[in-house]
C-alpha cells in the first residue's frame, strides 16, 4: 500500500523559513515524479511544485525563487524548502504521488498545515 | 483567478445526473490530459479521472470524463448524498510550465 506522510509544518513568522518532508513507502520512489499541492483555508487547490524521476523541477509562479522542491531517493523522501514565507503561503500542504499530466495525482498525503503569522 | 474555469456550484436530486465543466485554453486542456479530483469535507482530495476519461481502479462507473477542444467535463450519474463534495479539474499548462487547477465546484444533493 502506498503511503505518504508529510511533516515539518507549523507556525512561522513572515520572512521565515520552513522545510517540509514527505516520507513515502509502498512503491519504488525513484521511478516516480512527485508533486506538492497546497490549499489555503477555505480556498481551492493550488499546484505548487513538481519533480520528475530524472530530477527536472517545476515551480509555480507564486513560489518561484522562494520554494525549492527536492528528493532523496536513498531515503524515499520528498522535500519542500520554503524561504521568505508570506502570510499568503498559509495553507495545508499535500504531498502527492505523480504529476498532474498523464496519470494524474494519486494518492495524496494527509497534509501538513503551514501558518505564516507574526 | 484560476487558469481553468469551473462553475462554483451544481446541484441535483438523488439519483439524477450532474455535469461539471472545466474550461481552459490551447496551452492547457487543448494540448494536455485532464484529471478530476473529489474532496470530501475535511479530507485530502482523491483522483476520480485521469487521462481525461479513464477511471482508476475502485472508482465506480457512475463517474465519467470527457474532453473536447479546450474544455473538459465530469459527469456523475445516480447521484448519492455521499457525492456531496468539492470537485476540481487539473492539467498541465505548457505556457506556464506549471500545473493548474480549476477553482472547484461544490456539488449539492438536494
Widest β-sheet, arrangement of strands of chain A: 2-10-9-4-5-6
Broad shape of chain A: globular
**Principal-axis shape of chain B:** globular
Alpha-carbon distance between the termini of chain A?
A: 40 Å
Mean pLDDT over the residues of chain A: 97
What oligomerization state is this entry in?
heterodimer
The low-pLDDT segments of chain B are none
Number of strands of chain A: 10
Let me know the largest β-sheet of chain B: 6 strands, mixed
CA-based gyration radius of chain B:
13 Å
The share of residues in extended strands of chain A comes to over 45%
The rounded distance between the terminal residues' Cα atoms of chain B is 28 Å
* Biggest sheet architecture of chain A: 6 strands, mixed
- Overall structural class of chain A, as computed from helix and strand content, comes to mainly beta
Number of helices of chain B: 0
The helix/strand order of chain A is EEEEEEEEEE
The computed structural class of chain B is: mainly beta
Q: What's the number of extended β-strand segments of chain B?
A: 9
Report helical residue fraction of chain B. under 10%
Largest interface: A-B, 25 and 28 residues
